[in-house]
Design a protein that fits this description.
- The chain is of the alpha+beta class.
- It has one helix at residues 25-34; strands spanning 2-6, 12-16.
- Strands 1-2 form a two-stranded antiparallel sheet.
- It is globular.
């Protein structure tokens, strides 16, 4: 699932909920998303909210 919020500054915040069989794969997913040109940051939120 996902949610999107658009700010007045023209920046959108997208939140995705994903399920992974191997939690270690999350680091690879986040690194891939960070490499997208228009992405400022990508990080894990929730109970274990340490930035990956």
């Amino acid at each position: 699932s996902s949610t999107t919020r658009a700010g007045r500054n023209g920046i959108a915040t997208l939140t995705f909920t994903i399920e992974l069989v191997d939690p270690q794969h999350l680091n690879h997913v986040l690194q891939s998303v960070r490499r997208v040109d228009s992405v400022f940051d990508a990080y894990r939120t929730g109970a274990s909210s340490a930035r990956a």
